[in-house]
Specification:
By secondary structure, the chain is mainly α. The chain has 2 domains: 87 residues, Helix-hairpin-Helix base-excision DNA repair enzymes (C-terminal) (Endonuclease Iii, domain 2, Orthogonal Bundle), CATH 1.10.1670; 102 residues, Hypothetical protein, domain 2 (Endonuclease III, domain 1, Orthogonal Bundle), CATH 1.10.340. The chain contains 10 helices and no strands. The radius of gyration is 19 Å and the shape is elongated. The N terminus is likely disordered.
Length: 240
């Protein structure tokens, strides 16, 4: 009789992260001017007047959980996992009632699901105890929740509450440096530069416009400059 194989420990997916790493990719020859920036955002706003996150959610709580689960994972993968989860647990109380085993059964296809499950349940407890089961509209309060960092907090503030924050993920980090929009060697440096350089009229949706541009056009390995709508305003040195 064969001895059953032990379950393999969870492994983090091989995905680039910006956390704590200095930027090492291509940097623009020069800064985009304010006229360049205005022109670029005008184009993006015409293409997508109301850009949305590609994570599925039904309320601020499910958005928070989806973003927490999305660390080092794809939006597509998270959406597949949360489709059934959010159908039965869209409040902190319902999520907590699933317990550790019940929650893991839903999110086991997502990288780092063990640690993420623990953080989700701890976050639910803290939301119930400290916030009357509501999602706080304050960055410090959000960052005090287990597993929630600055980027996650910024996504929730922007997407759920319309606050003009910019959550710098790997796409925004790359686009900001490559185009000359807001170069910076760290995530925080890029975030602060974006806040300083993007006119207030565009800051509400800047987060999503930049993510979508980086995800579908200004890609990491092979940016598709040939159909980029803002190519004339970009100073990427290797642009054809």
């Amino acid at each position: 009789m064969k001895t059953p194989k032990a379950a393999s420990p969870e492994k983090a997916p091989k995905k680039r992260t910006t956390s704590g790493q200095p930027y090492q990719g291509p940097v623009a020859d020069r800064l985009m001017t304010q006229d360049d920036i205005a022109a670029a955002f005008q184009i993006w706003s015409q293409q997508r007047p109301e850009p949305k996150t590609e994570l599925n959610y039904s309320n601020p709580f499910t958005l928070l959980i989806a973003v927490l689960l999305s660390a080092q994972a794809t939006d597509v993968g998270v959406n597949k996992a949360t489709k059934g989860l959010f159908a039965i647990a869209d409040t902190p109380e319902a999520m907590l009632a699933l317990g550790d085993a019940g929650l893991k059964e839903h999110i086991k296809t997502i990288g780092l699901f063990n640690s993420k499950a623990a953080n989700v349940l701890k976050t639910c407890q803290k939301l119930i105890q400290d916030h009357n089961s509501q999602i706080p509209q304050d960055r410090a309060a959000l960052e005090a929740l287990p597993g929630v960092g600055r980027k996650t907090a910024n996504v929730v503030l922007n997407t759920a509450f319309g606050i003009p924050t910019i959550a710098v993920d790997t796409h925004i980090y790359r686009v900001s440096n490559r185009t000359g929009l807001a170069p910076g060697k760290t995530v925080l440096a890029v975030e602060l530069a974006l806040e300083d350089r993007i006119p207030s009229a565009w800051q509400r949706h800047a987060h999503h416009w930049l993510i979508l541009h980086g995800r579908y056009i200004c890609k990491a390995r092979k940016p598709e400059c040939w159909h980029c709508p803002i190519t004339k305003y970009c100073y990427y040195p290797e642009k054809p």
